[in-house]
Amino acid sequence: MDNTEKSRPGVAVGPTNEFSLFFRVKPGESASLREALSALQDTPGYRPGDYGMAIATIHEARFVLFDDDRQLAFITSFDGPWDAYMEDFFTSGPTLELFDVIFRHSEGYTGLPDMAALRAFILGAQQSAAAYARNYGGTVKEIRRAQRVYAAFEKVLDHPDAAEALQHPALRPLLDEAAD
Questions:
Q1: Which of 12, 47, 79, 111 keeps 20 to 30 A from 6, CA to CA?
Q2: Given a cut of 60, is residue 126 above it in pLDDT?
Q3: pLDDT at 7 over 60
Q4: Alpha helices in the chain, H assignment, sequence order
Q5: Rounded CA gap, 152 and 159, in Å?
Q6: How far is residue 151's CA from residue 161's CA, in Å, rounded to a whole number?
Q7: 37: how many CB neighbours lie within 10 A of its CB?
């Protein structure tokens, strides 16, 4: 790990990093902020059950209003280096605009297009987790690939000619795992 990596925020588990931001909500803006969060939640890629966020390395992301709506937390985990994640965020177009609508309700936010100020705003709000654990390994890309392989395997199992082909000894470990 070089000094650049050491200076980056968040705790890593394998290839995945946690990222937690905490903001103070501008007085009187919690209702507008809740509306902005609701609009984000209804945006393709962010709706429950949608899995197409613009930043494809994100495992999950959440916004939490707390302290009687006076504070806002943004908590996520992502794969890869922090700089690459931030670059994806800053160049994601629609995602950046959606977050602009949310962040404008936070104290200290000066808005777009000043990327240096936005980067400083984000780093100023970041707090590394005191502890971070994951219940699964793999990157988002690996997990999505595993889901595709599983779906393809299910199709093979459903094929009428599969029984004979699946008798091959080389497939035994795969079949044992599938039986679990």
A1: 111
A2: yes
A3: no
A4: 3-6, 30-41, 82-91, 94-103, 115-125, 140-158, 162-165, 172-179
A5: 11
A6: 17
A7: 18
pLDDT of the residue at 63: 96
Hey, what are 8's tokens?
């980056």
End-to-end CA distance of the chain: 39
Rg, Å, the chain Cα set:
21
**CA–CA distance, 27 with 106 (Å, rounded to integer):** 9
Distance CA 7, CA 9 (A): 7
What letter would DSSP give residue 23? E
Helices (H) and strands (E) in the chain, counts: 8, 4
**Distances from the Cα of 152 to the Cα of 149, 155, 166, angstroms:** 5, 5, 14
- Tell me the pTM: 0.83
Phi, psi of 77 (to 5 degrees): -135, 150
